[in-house]
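User: Design a sequence. Structure:
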């Protein structure tokens, strides 16, 4: 069974860059590895709807619970694709997976109700939608100022022309997201790895970050 490795973090943490470097590193080391990015905006009905609301094109505010269902639906609709990739690979690297849903929706409600919502989302994804838990999640710990700079450097997104989408534009939200990831990681240290992506606020080389993640994988 393929190892499910999820790369997590706030917007602009460098997830896409680190995930790509990680797949390259694993393949160079003789392992079969593939990258899957969520949301899959162009491939699923859930992903398309997510793009609409991130671009601010949905007429009404979407509740955190409704958003969680769309993100989970996107993964549910991807099951066949994941199964096919899992059969052909030793490691599936995810650029965001289930914990993104918990950290981001949990950041939209009062902090005292966040744990309850995050537990509800975990149950929604693994119970109602029957999705597989990742074997490991990696929290890319990137300072807010560095992330903002990284977001501004990002390539054009399929769903919006804006530099910052609805979530990215909200600094308070991004801070709460980081705090939620830290809480998830410290609650289950055996399922999480926290990786600092900067040294003295200078970005580490993607290959370096990838090497640290790969070194912690079971052989
Ligand atoms: N380790 C790094 N070193 C230098 N630049 C980086 C690094 N990680 C990301 N970047 C820059 O930031 C941009 C956004 O990074 P990306 O990996 O897409 O972030 P995320 O997927 O977390 O939103 C990239 O296009 C790249 O220009
Ligand atoms: C996958 C996923 C993403 N998100 C959020 C995090 C991001 O702010 C947003 C978009 O994901 P993101 O990975 O940032 O896509 P892109 O870089 O192409 O814009 O969706 C969730 O809330 N739940 C999820 O399950």
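Assistant: Done.
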């Amino acid at each position: 069974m393929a190892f499910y490795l999820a790369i997590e973090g706030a917007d602009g943490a460098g997830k896409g860059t680190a995930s790509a470097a990680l797949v390259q590193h694993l393949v160079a080391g003789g392992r079969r590895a593939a990258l899957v990015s969520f949301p899959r905006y162009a491939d699923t009905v859930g992903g398309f709807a997510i793009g609409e609301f991130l671009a601010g094109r949905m007429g009404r505010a979407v509740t955190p619970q409704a958003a969680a269902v769309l993100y989970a639906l996107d993964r549910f609709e991807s099951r066949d694709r994941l199964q096919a990739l899992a059969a052909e690979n030793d490691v599936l690297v995810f650029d965001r997976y289930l914990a993104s849903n918990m950290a981001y929706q949990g950041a939209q409600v009062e902090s005292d109700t966040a744990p309850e919502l995050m537990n509800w989302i975990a149950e929604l994804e693994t119970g109602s939608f029957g999705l597989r838990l990742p074997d490991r999640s990696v929290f890319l710990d990137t300072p807010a100022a560095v992330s903002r700079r990284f977001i501004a450097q990002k390539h054009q997104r399929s769903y919006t022309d804006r530099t910052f989408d609805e979530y990215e534009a909200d600094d308070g939200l991004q801070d709460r997201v980081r705090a939620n990831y830290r809480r998830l990681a410290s609650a289950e240290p055996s399922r999480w790895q926290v990786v600092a992506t900067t040294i003295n606020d200078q970005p580490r080389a993607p290959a370096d970050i990838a090497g640290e993640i790969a070194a912690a994988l079971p052989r």
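Residues 11, 38-39, 54, 71, 96, 100-101, 104, 157, 165, 167 surround thymidine-5'-diphosphate (ligand 2) (CB under 6 Å). The chain has one domain: 3-215.
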